[in-house]
Design goal:
Oligomerizes as a right-handed, spiral filament on DNA at oriC. The chain is an alpha/beta fold. The chain has 19 helices and 9 strands. The chain has 4 domains: 59 residues, GMP Synthetase, Chain A, domain 3; 162 residues, P-loop containing nucleotide triphosphate hydrolases (Rossmann fold, 3-Layer(aba) Sandwich); 70 residues, Orthogonal Bundle (Helicase, Ruva Protein, domain 3); 90 residues, DnaA protein, C-terminal DNA-binding domain (Chromosomal Replication Initiator Protein Dnaa, Chain: A, Orthogonal Bundle), CATH 1.10.1750.10. The strands form 2 sheets. A 6-stranded parallel sheet has the order 4-6-7-8-5-9, sandwiched between helices. The protein has a 3-stranded mixed sheet with strand order 1-2-3. The relative contact order is 0.08. Bound molecules: adenosine-5'-triphosphate.
Length: 425
Amino acid sequence: MDEVPASRFDAWVRPLTALCDGHGLTIKVPNRFFLDGLKASYGKRIGELAKSLVGDECVVLYEVDANPPPENETAQSELKESGTQSNVDGYIDPRFTFENFVVGSGNEFCHAASRAVADKPGEIYNPLYLYGGVGLGKTHLINAVANELLQKDHTRIAYRTGERFTNELIQAIRNGSTDAFRNQYRQVDVLIIDDIQFIAGKDRTQEEFFHTFNALYEVKKQIILTSDRSPRDLTNLMERLRSRFNWGLVADIQPPDLETRLAILSSKAELAGIQLDKDVAHLLASRITNNVRELEGALTRLTAHATLTGRMIDIAFARHVLRDLLHEEVRAISIEDIQKKVASYFNINVREMSSTKRSRTVAFPRQIAMYACKELTTRSLPEIGASFNKDHTTILYAVRKVDKMRQEDEDFDEEMGRIMRLLKQ
Ligand SMILES: Nc1ncnc2c1ncn2[C@@H]1O[C@H](COP(=O)(O)OP(=O)(O)OP(=O)(O)O)[C@@H](O)[C@H]1O
């Protein structure tokens, strides 16, 4: 109790009930919302205390209590006050903070840009447009910006997914309440839209968003957007929106390298209050390479299995529990396989794949191989680049070029289909 101020003790510790059975500690919490806040604020410390009380092998399990004690509302109201969620229209996830975001290759630029925006919203990078593949931390970063802003002052934030923005607009049109729809967005200091790609191809939504964008931008309110693609690659997007998305800072997030994946695992394990064996961490980080969400999911699965069966998480256990996930990765096609097969298809020497020759007979098959590597393996652009002796921008260029050709040329698309099937055999 000495470690936590009285108000926070009442809010976060008093509503808990704990049960210790000699191997582990089960903590009952009043609800899911409370659980997220508790883990983010005290998960690490609870894990440490449990170990010092019960022993190093102690596993902490959290359970949502079906019959919570009546005084449990304190934490929610405390969260509302400290995080001033009342200034928020939408849900900001309290778990996603800058403190628990691991910075490494692939995300450092997006991280720095997000930090800068959290420091000076509306002033330097407006809009901030973050894009990149699935599960790489975009949502985490934009929530971190929002959480940071909520700590500092009374910034009013609207947080939406592109899908929800669209659905709300459809609803407003149906109800004849488009004015109210418009107004709610124009009164905020920061507008955050996750997965803005969703509005592409939806003319009315784009039109509405265009006006909201202008209204906020003119009065220097911060706009933050995420997408799975760069503005340039968002087909079916109005040109005037595309150009606006480029007015501020466009930053791409790449899959983390091995070192960063290990650091993320260790941070997530620490937050969950578990000790992860080095070899197991290495097994996961080297096999699950381009999606942090999957990496986190693997860790959660391992922990749950270990807790339920009372087993230690060692390599054999991890291989068994995650056999489907790891097996799939083992079977995955390698870059070398692709280089060999594409070279033989086009009748060129496999060494040309990493040579500097630029003649079309060599350069084009090489670009096709680069494209196939991106499509069929889980390797990141820099990793693919290294296998071709090129940097990641050359790979990106090749991927885009082949993609575009496939869209525009039916015969080529058919041939590419054949090549891809061959590569998968
Ligand atoms: N660098 C990181 N440090 C800590 N956690 C991370 C990091 N990158 C991603 N994560 C975690 O991975 C999970 C997926 O991240 P997030 O939801 O932000 O991905 P995303 O890029 O928004 O994906 P999607 O495009 O599918 O929405 C989250 O739990 C997030 O906390």
